[in-house]
Structure formats: structure tokens, C-alpha cells
């Protein structure tokens, strides 16, 4: 099962302060909209998202169809196929992609410790 690009999505209290901190660690802003409360930062092939007021906990994020630099991949496993594979393995979902749709979609599960995992396909 190919989950796509991996990143950490951080729920931050102050996006300005967090952006400044991660820039000191060598991360650069590569996307997002700070006025809307979200930024994507990258250091080499490491990606983090900063999200203020959008969700409660930090979460693991996978993006089918993207490489580690946010570029579209030639081939990828559709989010709905990943979802079905996990359903077949008795994984419980917090939210699900519409299996009758195509293109963008997402689902969310949690690991045994309650850590949210988002699989978010953008194309």
C-alpha cells in the first residue's frame, strides 16, 4: 500500500511564533495562507504543516499522489483504494472518503494511542 508523501501537521497556538521557530531550524515556507491560519514548511525533503485553530491534536499526514516535495507523482494508490484495504483489515475510521467519488478525498483513523492519522489526496 503506497500512502504518499509524509508530513507532520502541528496544531499550534501562535502561527507567527511557530513559523519563526521552525525557520530558525532551517525550514522555509513553501505554501499555505498565514491569514487563514495554516502554513506548509519544508527543510530538504522534510515537511511540516502549521495549523492554528483547525484541529485539536498534532497528526501524521500522508498525501497520495505527491512526492516529498509536493510534486505530483506519475502513479499513486487512490485514497479510496487505501481506505478499502484498511477496512478489509478491520481498521476503524473517524472520517471516510466518499467511495463513489473520484479525485480529491480524505479519511482519518487513529492509532492505538489516539494519535490521528490523515490520508489526504489532493488530485
TrEMBL record:
Keyword Oxidoreductase in record: yes
Alphabetized CDD domains for the sequence: VOC
Superkingdom of origin organism: Bacteria
Domain VOC: 4-122
Keywords: Dioxygenase, Oxidoreductase
Record has Oxidoreductase as a keyword: yes
GO MF term list: dioxygenase activity
Chain positions covered by the region annotation Disordered: 95-123
PANTHER family: BLR2520 PROTEIN
Protein name, as recorded: Glyoxalase/bleomycin resistance protein/dioxygenase
Amino acid at each position: 500500500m503506497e500512502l504518499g508523501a509524509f508530513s507532520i501537521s502541528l496544531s499550534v497556538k501562535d502561527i507567527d511564533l511557530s513559523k519563526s521557530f521552525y525557520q530558525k531550524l532551517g525550514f522555509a515556507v513553501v505554501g499555505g495562507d498565514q491569514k487563514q491560519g495554516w502554513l506548509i514548511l519544508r527543510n530538504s525533503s522534510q515537511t511540516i504543516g502549521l495549523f492554528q485553530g483547525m484541529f485539536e491534536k498534532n497528526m501524521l499526514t500522508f498525501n497520495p499522489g505527491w512526492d516529498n516535495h509536493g510534486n505530483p507523482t506519475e502513479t499513486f494508490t487512490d485514497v479510496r483504494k487505501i481506505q478499502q484495504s484498511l477496512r478489509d483489515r478491520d481498521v476503524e475510521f473517524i472520517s471516510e472518503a466518499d467511495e463513489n467519488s473520484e479525485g480529491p478525498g480524505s479519511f482519518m483513523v487513529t492509532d492505538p494511542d489516539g494519535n490521528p492519522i490523515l490520508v489526504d489526496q489532493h488530485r
